[in-house]
Amino acid sequence: MDRKQVILSPEETGRQREYEQKIRALHQGRGRTPLALVDTFGCQQNVADSQHIMGMLRAMGCEFTRDADRADIIVLNTCAIRDHAEKRVFGNLGALTHTKKKNPDQIICLCGCMAQRPEIAEKVRTSYRHVDLVFGPQAMWKFPELLYRVYTRRGRVFSVEDESGTIAEGMPIVREGHTRAWVSIMYGCNNFCSYCIVPYVRGRERSRDMDKIVAEVRELADQGFKEITLLGQNVNSYGKDLEPRHDFADLLRELDKLDGDFLLRFMSSQPKDASFKLFDTMAQSRHVAHQLHLPVQSGCDRVLRAMNRPYDRARYLELINYARKVMPDLVLTSDIIIGFPGETEAEAMETVGLVRQVEFDALFTFIFSPRPGTPAAKMDDPVPRAEKQKWFDTLCATQNDISARLHARYVGKTLRCLVDGETDDARWPLSGRTAGGRLVHLVGDKSALGQYRDIKITDSNTWALFGEMV
Ligand code: SAH
Ligand code: SF4
Ligand code: F3S
């Protein structure tokens, strides 16, 4: 892709800022501050996108609410990764017919990955007529212009063309809190794993310029953010489209030079592009957390090939063995799909065997969900759901034992944790994260919120650690 076509010109993004001001003037004409509700489904990339959508809404003069009845503008930022994710959104959309009946001027917007699927856009067009604006992730940067069209034409607007995608710099943003921040470093995916919808809805891989990312992270560090997570569907292929070429490890090295007391995390990584250079860089860095989310998907070479994941079990093991050698304190997590079309019980148990062998700190486990338009959706899938569920339960039980065992090893240790949450549990009123990203329920004073503290771990279970401030 030609970078000139990929990066939107300042004139183009500037036009959107003008639309924000035009809408702000329209809102001011009504004499009351409009309220917006943004609901986010799906992965961190969507969370990051929603923060930009909120930034644009704030520039239009909106304040925010969680009450759908009071909202003037509702935005559902959706996920298409599994059927279940889409069903949830349709449930929410259905409920919004009632709020719109009570408030016919309410504007309802559907955006995100689902909106980019042609079948979904068509279904919304014909059967969800209370939805005013539909736009995919590729069109997010022109949300102000699209919303202006809804206001001035009083008609429904659809912007779901299949584009390969752009990069928009300088979009406004509303971050949540002052502790954790998300920074997208690239967009889209070129991998076309045979089960996955993401490349169809997020377009081709494109990397932001390194200096733009460095400037954003520097600003966040200066503002006192303590954890900055770099986002991309496959951060390990960062920079393949840049000239001169830089890779993800180069980007980490640049970011590591920044001053401040903060941790860098990143997700997700594809094993096919993970490198020893990356692990060496992590090991030598000051800021990069020794935490790696490296989705393996399956422990069976035949299934990996059918998934179009171009690595095998041996290569995966080689990668993590090296990563653990250079970072003995590495916290390793992964994603696994059970019940891929044609997978046999023996093959699923190969995956369970891999899990036993590797001893991940935690796993995100999924039962295969056919996504229309992907190659896997057309494959023969003879195994009944109940059978897949049994394999899935075996996998989860195996991992739960491992997580509980690994967590128990923390008891008695003192770890530096970022205290960043309050809970409803009076026994453990605070929560935090270790450098490796493990959740810790805490006893201690609220004044520690947003800060690093040494925490003595006193107890643990499968999902979390428990501790007190020292
Ligand atoms: N880009 C990331 C994954 C993003 S999607 C990567 O490649 O690692 C997050 C996870 O959802 C995937 O790792 C996979 O385990 C799961 N997933 C994706 N498509 C799925 C499908 N059709 N059915 C079930 N799980 C799926
Ligand atoms: Fe989907 Fe594969 Fe791309 Fe991850 S790398 S987003 S699983 S196609
Ligand atoms: Fe879902 Fe889109 Fe993320 S499909 S997982 S929100 S990239």
Task: Characterize the structure shown.
The chain is α/β, with parallel strands linked by helices. The protein has 4 domains: 3-159, Rossmann fold; 177-289, Transcription Regulator spoIIAA; 300-407, Transcription Regulator spoIIAA, CATH 3.30.750.200; 414-469, Beta Barrel (OB fold (Dihydrolipoamide Acetyltransferase, E2P)), CATH 2.40.50. It has helices at 3-6, 10-29, 44-59, 83-102, 118-127, 143-153, 198-202, 210-222, 248-256, 276-284, 301-306, 313-326, 345-358, 385-408, and strands at residues 35-40, 63-64, 73-78, 107-112, 133-135, 157-159, 180-184, 186-187, 206-207, 227-231, 263-267, 291-293, 331-338, 362-367, 414-422, 430-434, 439-443, 451-460, 465-469. 37% of the residues lie in helices and 20% in strands. The chain has 14 helices and 19 strands. The longest helix is centred in the C-terminal third of the chain and has 24 residues, at 385-408. Helix 6 links the parallel strand 5 and strand 6 (157-159). The strands form 5 sheets. The chain has a 6-stranded parallel sheet with strand order 2-1-3-4-5-6, sandwiched between helices. It has a 5-stranded mixed β-barrel with strand order 15-16-17-19-18. A 3-stranded parallel sheet has the order 7-10-11, with helices on both faces. Iron/sulfur cluster is lined by residues 189, 191-193, 196, 198-199, 233-234, 270.
